[in-house]
Amino acid sequence: MAIQVNKQLMDKGQVGAMIEWLASFGQEENGGVTRLLYSPAWQDAQHALNKFMEEMNLTTYFDSVGNLFGRLQGTDSKGKTILTGSHIDTVVEGGKYDGAYGIIASLIAVIRLYNQYGYPKKTIEVVSLCEEEGSRFPLTFWGSRNITGVYNLDHVKNVQDANGISFLEAMMHAGFDPGKYTSPARKDIERFVEIHIEQGMVMEKNQNQIGLVSHIVGQRRYTIHIKGESNHAGTTPMYFRKDAVSTACYLISFLTEKTKELDPSLVATVGKLTVKPNVPNVIAGEVEFSLDIRHHEERIIDQYCHEIFAEFKRTLESLKMEVSISQWMDVKPVMMDIQMRNLAREAAEGKNMRYQEIISGAGHDAQVFGKACPTSLLFVPSRNGISHSPDEFTHGEDLEIGIDLLTEVLYKLAY
Ligand code: ZN
């Protein structure tokens, strides 16, 4: 799809055209976008972006896992690089803005800076990260975790997608031969700045234009298995039952109430429940449920887990039933760099933007970079807080305000 993008990218309104253009790669009939890692739509998008970056006179290159970079060389960079961007992949039938906006905003900001001030002192690179969502293969942050040296090919050797296509085979077909893999790990990244849609409704409710992210929450996920005794629904008196469903119900209400008691930012979700035998006239012998816990402070998560699991054990012991608690995800909370947040705050104040500090309840590449270098994450509002959906939307005016702020932040960091 050819679009008329103003090559100077100085005009307001270009961001909308760029969003539509990038969304055309992998666009579904319902307006959603599906761009899974290494898929044809993903390849088309990365190559189109590469071409666009070249036309903007950035020096472009792919690393060996498919992260795309557009480099604006600094005059006095001392080998250090300011990196800015976001991820190109989407969930299945995702929105046009998640990830894509961060790449487009970074590109526009860098081109505007170059047009106005020429070459920066410090090198700036725009990155289109190959993968963040975990929507094709069961792993996340493949792009940023390669750049920060956390992941390499060993982590995907036995990984397959839902169709049985191996990770390495998919990589090969996309033009990234695993046999030619060299580590994309970078030692020269001085700072990382990401701008992203909020994917929540806090900023819209507060009528703010900019979110300065202070923390990205930590996440733990568990599978809880309760074993009781399956029996006849008519002949088993209530006091003699080992009913896994009624026990699970008690535990779920307990854990839900406990979050409210402990901390207003703490969230816990039971989103999946499996009942055995799942028959109307049989007392359930087994229940398995998922538990997703998020907060920006590790100690709060620790305290919460300690208290709820103690109650789980007490309850099950008194009922002479069994419980097993298995954890399968543990992502630590990450604090964004305070200095960079202050710099963004000053920039927002200087431009009379309505801003707020905010905690991100969703995961972002910034949390991976945040462990490796000073990192800043900026938000623009999402209409009705909707994301990962064809209905995802951010007003053009808000997109433009975000770019304006990002441009100022990059100017302060690199010029
Ligand atoms: Zn995202």
Model description:
The longest helix is centred in the C-terminal third of the chain and has 21 residues, at about 300-320. It is globular and about 80 Å long. The protein folds into 2 domains: about 5-215 and about 335-415, Zn peptidases (Aminopeptidase, 3-Layer(aba) Sandwich), CATH 3.40.630; about 225-330, Alpha-Beta Plaits. It is α+β, with helices and mostly antiparallel strands. It contains 11 helices and 16 strands. β3 (about 80-85), α3 and β4 form a beta-alpha-beta unit. About 35% of the residues lie in helices and about 25% in strands. Zinc ion (ZN) binds near residues 87, 98, 99, 132 and 196.
Keyphrases for this structure?
binds zinc ion, Aminopeptidase, single chain, alpha+beta, nine-stranded mixed sheet, globular, 415 residues, 16 strands, 11 helices
Bound molecules: zinc ion
What is the count of structural domains? 2
Report how far apart the termini are: 35 Å
Q: Estimate the strand proportion.
A: 15-25%
Topology, number of strands: 16
Structural class determined from secondary elements: alpha+beta
State the helicity in percent bands.
Answer: 25-40%
Query: In terms of quaternary structure, what is this?
Result: single chain
Number of helices: 11
CATH domain class of the largest domain: Alpha Beta
Largest sheet: 9 strands, mixed
- Rg, Å, rounded: 24 Å
Mean pLDDT value: 95
CATH architecture of the largest domain: 3-Layer(aba) Sandwich
Low-confidence parts:
none
Q: What is the overall shape?
A: globular
CATH-derived topology of the largest domain: Aminopeptidase
Topology as H/E string? HHEEEHEHHEHEEEHEEEEHEEHEHEH
Kindly report the name of the CATH homologous superfamily of the largest domain.
Answer: Zn peptidases
